[in-house]
Amino acid sequence: MRCDLGTENTYTAQMQTFSHQNDHRNTFIYGTSQHNQRIESWWSVLRRENTDFWISLFQTFKKDGFYTGDFIDKNLLQFCFMKLLKREFQNVVDTWNHYKIRPCKYEGNVHGRPVILYNCPRNEDTLNFLCPVRPKDVEACLEECLFPEDICDKNVFDLACIVMRENHLDKPEDPYAATNLYVERETYSAS
To answer: Which residues form the Integrase core domain (predicted)?
Structure first.
């Protein structure tokens, strides 16, 4: 695996190295961003197609005084928006993984659809780099991860669900409904 020195890659490097501790090959390589053009391209697409909207929205909350960054604000923001964010991110991932990488004149360039290259490497005349990992090592790595069902603090989640039930509110299905729920939270909590 090859990544740049980004903060998010520290855990990835540790888990990759830990999972392959008996493999004497270098299983993780740090490199400069220009050598990671595909992932840098992915970040550009994600920003342009998805996150710019959300960053702008959340900056507006802060600028307008709806978000202070305290524990409750952070968790209520997660409660209102996390499922939408995850759904949108998954749509971008699905789109990215199904686009077709064009053949290129450079030797060793793999082309095809990423989802097929990953799931069926032999069908596309590529190599399968999966290595066996002990189940106890997988468990150890899983203990270090956060999972999608962790939307926000459990107590805040439970209280927010009670407030929503008492006020006959539906879970937000779009950014506008989530914004209304988040911005109007003071109205609901006072009822």
So the answer is: 1-103
The residue to which tokens 């202070």 are assigned: 68
- Say which amino acid occupies 173: E
Q: Three-state SS across the chain?
A: CEECCCCCHHHHHHHHHHHCCCCCCCCCEECCHHHCHHHHHHHHHHHHHHHHHHHHHHHHHHHCCCCCCCHHHHHHHHHHHHHHHHHHHHHHHHHHHHCCECCCCCCCCCCECHHHHHHCHHHHCCCCCCCCCCHHHHHHHHHCCCCCCCCCCHHHHHHHHHHHHHCCCCCCCCHHHHHHHHHCHHHHHCC
Query: What's the pLDDT tens digit per position in 63-118?
Result: 999 999 999 999 999 999 999 998 988 888 888 888 888 887 776 677 888 888 88
Residue-range domain boundaries for the chain: 38-105+146-189
Tell me which of 58 and 132 has the higher pLDDT.
Answer: 58
